[in-house]
Amino acid sequence: MGAGKESTVTKKLKDNLLDLAASQCVKFPANFVDYIPRKWEKHGDLIVFPSTAFQEDFWDNFDKETLWREIARSLNVKRLARQDKIQSNDYRSPNVSMLLGSDPWALHIDNKIRFVKF
Question: What is the pLDDT averaged over residues 54-76?
Fold first, then answer.
């Protein structure tokens, strides 16, 4: 993607969040686009956002369940999670907080090898 170009997925997410904000009478700051994540990991029907995603105060103005469902619909998945701090165990295990859905396990296929993650 060239500099300054917006991906179709990011545009769809932005447009749907604007519509949701209007329906819930939520005012976005002028630079709200800066707060919409542009990167995430997709594992089957699960998207894992970076730890900083959707942490700004204005996201608290939304009904959370409706917000997560709209984001999942926009990204064509059923489950959403956000990365947390790495666990301080011998394996430095990843930690996620589920935003939508309850099962953090996902099948990941790499070079025809199947891995179960999280």
Answer: 94
